[in-house]
Amino acid sequence: MNPQRIAAIALREYYLVRGSIARLFPLCVWAGIDIVVWGFLTKYLSTVVTGSFNVVSVLLGSILLWNFLIRMMQGVTTTFFEDVWSRNFLNVFSSPISIAEYVSGLILSSILMSLISVTVMLLLAVFVFSLTLLPYGLLLIPFVFILLLFGIALGIVGAAIVLRLGPSAEWFIWPIPAIISPFVGVLYPLAVLPHWMQFIGRFLPPSYVFEGMRAVIAGSPVSMQSLVIGSVLAILSLIVACLYFARVFRFAVRTGLIARYSAESVN
Amino acid sequence: MLSVTNLRKNYGDLHAVSDVSFEVRRGEIVGLLGPNGAGKTTTVSMILGVLAPSAGTIRVEGHDVMRDHRKAMERANFAAVYAPLPGNLTIEQNLRIFGMLYGVRDLQKRIEELIAEFDLEKYRGKKSGVLSSGEQTRLCLAKAMLNRPQLLLLDEPTASLDPSVARDIRAKIRGFVDTQKCGVLWTSHNMYEVSEVCDRVLFLSHGKVLLEGDPKTLHIKHGKSSLEELFITVAKEPLTLDLS
């Protein structure tokens, strides 16, 4: 893999974000608004909830990490969509870049863009709503690791779907995090879900993160086994996502989809 | 330089390209001609590796395009009227991104050379999308020459340009070929341009190479008054041609 080609994809995204308020706005404002809304809600709830339940750490911490996953996913898909929107496939894929380098470029762009969102969210959550992540300690590392990998995996799958079905399939991609969120228990324990939803949730890596977060705040030990399962599932998701993208790309080259994406409109 | 052997592309029962074989040699400009739907762009897409052939091989400087896409494309580049560079990036940004993708050494120097050569200096900070057709074409050609390719694929590079700009562009490409000794595969519907620029032409019809020869004499050989008349015959009455 050639680092220069990977960097080219990330540099392109940097140029676009730097030169466009429309691109910078959602990175900062949407992420910030989520924290503000949930921040005030948790502030209110903490005045009515009695006992040792730490509303701010549980709810706001979960929202922050869930948003991190969403930003990771959208970082990958929007970098890919830039090539769709500017009809750039023919120029990019007729260059010497390999698929592995291209996907790595999407991931690098996503990590850099997510850093902007996460910084805004963290600053607001910590300084305005007094969120402290200290109770999570070193467990934050596996939590972030799992969400990062799964967010990237979702983004790559989203990109593959749009490559396969055409630009209008973009509308399938934006709601994916919202569709997944009820199953992974971002705001509630999996135990409150019906069995069939719990069953699906057990195959989704973020479930293990949010269950673990709640355990930490409740003062219970976090099961290392569940973190390992979550990590393994996240790694597997990423591998499957990359294989799926490569498969769709081969299909697109075989059928002429790549060439047509640029030369004429695809619905 | 470029070797295409028994190239075929089928979409179900439709044979878009059938058993096409040809070569482009060093320092040679080869015109790929034919009516709409003859298979020119399909052939160019396969040479670029963005469309897999159903059969046949394509080699750029000995590197198989499908098996060793990276090495083949490091030695090639292309410009096409239907593939403008991203309009939301400036000229300089576009050249930098593609220079990095093509692994161009001493990139800043190369960008400055191309900006000067294609007279893009006063637009360098402008978004490519707001450039005129002529300026966009010059930018696409600058991108196509970033890596000093040994094979240049030009799919209707002067379409939508006025005759004066088109002549300048042709002169620049001819100059590049003469200095770099690269090979060019050039598709065009402008027969005047083809006879002026190309050393050899291939006429495609229904996915097959029907005729091949010197654009200055090929029409005479087939009893036509001009290359344009020969083109029209290939497009409308290919069976009336004496192909012996």
Describe this structure in words.
The complex is a heterodimer of chains A (267) and B (244). Chain A is an all-alpha fold. Chain A has one domain (3-263). Helices cover 78% and strands 0% of the residues of chain A. The two termini of chain A are 33 Å apart. Chain B has helices at 40-48, 69-74, 91-101, 107-117, 133-144, 163-180, 191-197, 218-221, 227-236, and strands at 2-11, 14-24, 29-33, 55-60, 63-64, 76-80, 151-155, 183-187, 200-205, 208-213. Chain B has a 6-stranded mixed β-sheet with strand order 6-7-8-3-9-10, sandwiched between helices. In chain B, strands 2-1-4-5 form a 4-stranded antiparallel β-sheet. In chain B, helix 3 packs across helix 4. Chain B is globular, with a radius of gyration of 18 Å. Classes of the chains: A mainly alpha (267), B alpha/beta (244). The A-B interface holds A 2, 4-5, 7-8, 11-12, 15-16, 19-20, 82, 86-98, 250, 253-254, 256, 258-259, 262-264 and B 11, 41-42, 45, 48-52, 69-71, 73-74, 78, 80, 82-90, 93, 96-98, 100-103, 143.
Please summarize what this structure is:
The complex is a heterodimer of chains A (267) and B (244). With 267 residues, chain A is mostly helical. Chain A is built from 12 helices and no strands.
